Amino acid sequence: MSINGRPEYPTTTDLSDVAVGTLALAEEPIAFDVDAIRADFPILERTVDGGPLIYLDSANSSQKPRVVVEAVEDHYLNHNANVARAMHMLGAEATEAFEGARAQLAKFISANRPEEVVFTKNASEALNLCAYTLGASLRPGDEIVISVMEHHSNIVPWQLLAQRSGAVLRWFDVTDEGRLDLDKAAADGLLNERTKIISVAYVSNVLGTVNPISEIAALGHALGATVVVDASQAVPQLAVNMATLGADLVAFTGHKMVGPTGIGVLWGRYELLAQMPPFLGGGEMIEVVTMEGSTYAPPPHRFEAGTPPIAQAVGLSAAAQYLTAIGMDQITAHERDITAYALEGLRSLPGLTLLGPAEPVDRGGAVSFTLTTSDGQPIHPHDVSHLLDSRGIAVRAGHHCARPLHERFGVQSSTRASFYLYTTRAEIDALVDGVDYTISFFGGLR
Amino acid sequence: MKVEDLYQEIILDHYRAKHHSGLREPYDAEVYHVNPTCGDEVRLRVQLVGDTVADVSYEAMGCSISQASTSVMTDLVIGHDVAYDLDLYEEFLVMMQSKGQIEPDEERLEDGVAFAGVAKFPARVKCALIGWSAFRDAVMRAQSASS
Q1: A195, A200, A220: which is closest to A210 by C-alpha?
Q2: A130 noted as active-site residue
Q3: Nearest Cα to A258, choosing from A420, A39, A379, A390?
Q4: Cα(A211)–Cα(A356) distance, rounded to whole angstroms?
Q5: How far out from the chain centre does Cα A33 lie?
Q6: Residues in chain A within 8 Å Cβ distance of B7
Q7: Where are the domains of chain B?
């Protein structure tokens, strides 16, 4: 059967045969059943010292449902060949699978056409692609605007571009609550006629803040700037509609949305992609090569030099179908419910300070915090995560690739718990208990 | 091994009240070491008088293991010959890289033996070594500056 309404192509796993329960086949929205969903993720059955594994690090990398792993396996075992250049049966199947995955992803993010979806190896490569190609037209004195809440992958490419081009890198500050400080930006004239590129996160990987992308895009477009969005934390948990978002270029990654590692996506408005120069040179991105020079393929292949992540694209396509079958709106609602529950539980702990919005409004499922003992001694996140790990609870400790943001809040690092469609309230209870125990332990009260 | 065994009371005591903490004058060399994966950092000074380590002072931020290890290290090295201290560094390094297989010499490493358990957690070995590595680096620099 065809889940996505497209003609059946022989190269992907038929989802009707694999274990996604009844979810993938439902015509009508059905009640969100976290236990049924967890059954699709074998890794969640693992135990730690006899207790359950409690995986609260999905903003770092999500776990994979069986259907995704089986789609990758089926591709390698039954349809594997190179794409776009092998003229035999398997080559045709692999090409159809790869291009079918592109169409599936385009549908998942409501892109106007599949050619707007460029496959990269991850979101970082997609953002570097943007910086490299958009940078070709920058002049000294032009301004690039990012924000202090960005992941390093949306900071460093722009720093490199500024160094290369003589452009000036500026950034949005955040309010103490962890929202983009648009008032301060307006007062400071952050966005002005020199602004050529704006690149901001849709959802902060540390604070969880959901940023007003459409508003920022409108401000940027009024000034003639190109608007880039790092949607790595948004696409997994929100129904993102590229046709209406207002951005020009949007990067995200596969492995945070129950897909494989090794694949990311750059979505771009087709007219813009068509104007952009190539990024990496090599096979598949060319039209005609002579020793004197070459012409380049149209998008998306212009930006896909070399053999692309084919099996990963097949897996990502299965991931998009899986999330669609469950329903992105239901996933968003679950994420909000779990986040609200976690905020409530964690806020009740004396010694815990949240980074980012304390209310579950315009907020994604990542909760970062710092801890102090009852006598005011800070507890280092590395110690927190180690103690939680000993109780089977996987969280992330450190600066989460957002060091400038931590500096903005006057802390060296933090502990982050992040949630996804398989996270339960019982897991949040275990987290709150574990953090409570950690505070006592380092306060000498064990 | 339980994590509570990792965090022995000796380690937590040193973490809560670090010995020889703070930057002092005079000094012959100052180094700055950082572990970019977790953000542990230490700025450390060494003062040599002849062949003797007269003082080690430092400012450090980081997890309990890194802080306690640096504190214990200063107790062990201050007042001793450079050669003795560098031997001690090697001994501590071997213990930390032993994955918990080596029975440390308590006579020599004193409170440092508490870190033998840390050696069983590969992710934390770097934490226990950062202060020691900074000390060794500073001694090398102080020696090359004076020669």
Answers
A1: A200
A2: no
A3: A420
A4: 12
A5: 24
A6: 383, 387, 441
A7: 3-146
pTM of the model: 0.89
pLDDT tens track for A229-278: 999 999 999 999 999 999 999 999 999 999 999 999 999 999 999 999 99
- A282 exposed, middle or buried (CB, 10 Å; 0-12, 13-18, 19+)? exposed
Is B14 near chain A, with CB under 8 Å? no
Q: How far is A397 from chain B (nearest CA, A)?
A: 7
**Residue from B4, B5, B7, B61 to probe the interface with A (highest A Cβ count within 10 Å):** B7
- Report whether A236 contacts A256 (CB < 8 A): yes
pLDDT at residue A200 is higher than 70: yes
Distance from C-alpha of A419 to C-alpha of B99, rounded to nearest angstrom: 33
pLDDT band at B36 (very low <50, low <70, confident <90, very high): confident
Distances, alpha carbon A12 to alpha carbons A39, A81, A83, A262, in Å? 22, 14, 15, 18
Q: Where does B3-146 sit in CATH, by number? A: 3.90.1010.10
Query: Touching check for B122 and chain A: CB below 8 Å?
Result: no
Encoded amino acid at A398, one letter: G
Q: Rounded to an integer, what distance in angstroms lies between the CA atom of residue A17 and that of residue A307?
A: 30
CB nearest to B62's CB, from A380, A403, A444 = A380
Lowest mean pLDDT among A7-21, A338-352, B45-59: A7-21
Q: Which of B2, B16, B63 sits opposite A382 (nearest CB)?
A: B63
| Domains of chain A listed by start with CATH number | 89-324 (3.40.640.10), 329-442 (3.90.1150.10)
CB contact under 8 A, B4 and A446: yes
Q: Identify the DSSP state of A285.
A: S
Residue partners of A28: CB distance under 8 A and separation at least 6: none
Q: Is the dihedral of CA B35, B36, B41, B47 positive or negative?
A: positive
